[in-house]
Specification:
By secondary structure, the chain is of the alpha/beta class. Helix content is 39%, strand content 16%. A seven-stranded parallel β-sheet has the order 3-2-1-4-5-6-7, with helices on both faces. The N and C termini lie far apart (58 Å).
């Protein structure tokens, strides 16, 4: 068990942004605990995988118990797991609502509560949450009120927890992406999705990874909602 190497927990780690974040922290020689429903064992001995549903409190318990047993510490939690489903508000079903709340809100609650308990005792740590710029700049072409309801709550909780923990050595921040080129979006939709950003392109996974790494090293930054969205949050770019 190492008590020197820094350790990151990443949720939603099996593909897309989460997998990119795992790879980036490993390149920085962090130990990584990676979790998702479909996560598979890793060939890298410094990546510990823990399968589970992020909305289930038992998953957070297993993740942090495993992290402490293997590595002896947790320095960073990246709350990346999330769901997105664009629908007119009245078309959402009860099942849609429950899935949104379980993944986006309950997952954040259970993981962050465990992380802050560990980090508060350590006297150091950092929580980063991936939200969405639709919270700040809704678009009628992408009706997603449940994303705003849930991810907007995470932005507010990020600021609240940053203040609550400011004197403990623990920082709390968020990255607020635009539309990122991940397996969630089929290639035939990329051109239309690119046009939803003032800069005229979709984001890349590396754009979000770079923001996460910046915040993780920015020791004087807490309570920040960092928009990585090609200008979406700044306003409309066409009439």
């Amino acid at each position: 068990m190492s008590t020197e190497r820094k350790v990151t927990v990443v949720t939603g780690a099996s593909q897309g942004i989460g997998a990119g974040i795992v790879e980036a922290f490993r390149r920085r020689d962090y130990g990584v605990v990676a979790t998702s429903r479909s996560i598979k064992p890793s060939d890298d001995a410094e990546i510990l995988t823990v399968p589970g549903d992020v909305g289930d409190p038992r998953t957070a318990q297993r993740v942090f118990s495993a992290a402490l047993e293997r590595f002896g510490r947790v320095d960073t939690l990246v709350n990346n797991a999330g769901m997105f489903m664009a629908k007119p508000f009245t078309a959402y079903s009860q099942a849609d609502y429950e899935a949104y709340v379980a993944t986006n809100v309950s997952g954040f609650f259970h993981m962050t509560q465990r992380a802050l308990d560990v980090m508060g005792k350590q006297g150091r740590g950092h929580v980063i949450t991936i939200t969405t710029s639709l919270v700040d700049q809704p678009m009628n072409s992408v009706p997603a009120a449940l994303a705003s309801l849930t991810k907007g709550g995470l932005n507010a909780a990020t600021r609240s927890l940053a203040i609550e923990y400011a004197s403990t050595g623990v920082r709390v921040n968020a990255v607020s992406p635009g539309i990122i080129k991940t397996p969630m979006h089929p290639p035939e939709a990329h051109q239309a999705l690119a046009g939803l950003h003032p800069v005229g392109r979709m984001g890349e996974i590396t754009d979000i990874v770079d923001a996460v790494l910046y915040l993780d090293g920015a020791n004087f930054v807490t309570g920040e909602i960092l928009h990585v969205d090609g200008g979406q949050a700044a306003g409309h770019h066409r009439i």
